Amino acid sequence: ELRHRASPWQRNLGYPLAMLGLLALTGISVLIVCFHVLELLLDDAAMPRGIQDASLGQVSFSIFGSFGAALQVVLIFYLMVSSVVGFYSSPLFTRLLPKRRDTPLTKIIGNCVSLLVLSSALPVFSRTLGITRFDLLGDFGRFNWLGNFYIIFLYNMGFAALTTLCLVKRVSWAVQAELIRAFGEDG
């Protein structure tokens, strides 16, 4: 219903651009994680431990300078939004989704706790995937398991594989549905 009420500009330009943007952000995230996996295999310094002597402003946290730092911010924001959307889309937590003017206090508290846990995990998540090396004003590099190569390697490989699988599945199903619709109307 929302699609039918959307303007032609929104349908023909806005939605495809938004989809291309999401595909680009997902692809960039997977490429960065794959690059981080290669770094993990070649260099022990790629492990997401705390930064010892790097002062803020003296050392660049991105190899691409300001553009890389801006890209990291956009990717972290994208991961935050996709985590929240994925959380509320899972069958276990769809009942927790608040409803306008009809949300009990216990559900509001559950949402606050869920969002707090997701936002607290985001810095560790982004460091573990190699998206950023910045400590985000907390020394998240002190976790002992962040020094375990196998956990970090499997976490990165799992993220890259599952994200690629979801991306290919989503894109191929959309293309498949359009082909069926196009050939179904002609035949």
TrEMBL record:
<dbReference type="GO" id="GO:0016055">
    <property type="term" value="P:Wnt signaling pathway"/>
</dbReference>
<dbReference type="InterPro" id="IPR006876">
    <property type="entry name" value="LMBR1-like_membr_prot"/>
</dbReference>
<keyword id="KW-0879">Wnt signaling pathway</keyword>
<dbReference type="GO" id="GO:0004888">
    <property type="term" value="F:transmembrane signaling receptor activity"/>
</dbReference>
<keyword id="KW-0675">Receptor</keyword>
<feature type="transmembrane region" description="Helical">
    <location>
        <begin position="58"/>
        <end position="88"/>
    </location>
</feature>
<dbReference type="GO" id="GO:0005886">
    <property type="term" value="C:plasma membrane"/>
</dbReference>
<protein>
    <submittedName>
        <fullName>LMBRL protein</fullName>
    </submittedName>
</protein>
<keyword id="KW-1003">Cell membrane</keyword>
<feature type="transmembrane region" description="Helical">
    <location>
        <begin position="108"/>
        <end position="125"/>
    </location>
</feature>
<keyword id="KW-0472">Membrane</keyword>
<keyword id="KW-0256">Endoplasmic reticulum</keyword>
<keyword id="KW-0254">Endocytosis</keyword>
<comment type="similarity">
    <text>Belongs to the LIMR family.</text>
</comment>
<keyword id="KW-1133">Transmembrane helix</keyword>
<feature type="transmembrane region" description="Helical">
    <location>
        <begin position="12"/>
        <end position="38"/>
    </location>
</feature>
<dbReference type="Pfam" id="PF04791">
    <property type="entry name" value="LMBR1"/>
</dbReference>
<dbReference type="GO" id="GO:0006898">
    <property type="term" value="P:receptor-mediated endocytosis"/>
</dbReference>
<dbReference type="InterPro" id="IPR008075">
    <property type="entry name" value="LIMR"/>
</dbReference>
<dbReference type="GO" id="GO:0005789">
    <property type="term" value="C:endoplasmic reticulum membrane"/>
</dbReference>
<keyword id="KW-0812">Transmembrane</keyword>
<feature type="transmembrane region" description="Helical">
    <location>
        <begin position="145"/>
        <end position="168"/>
    </location>
</feature>
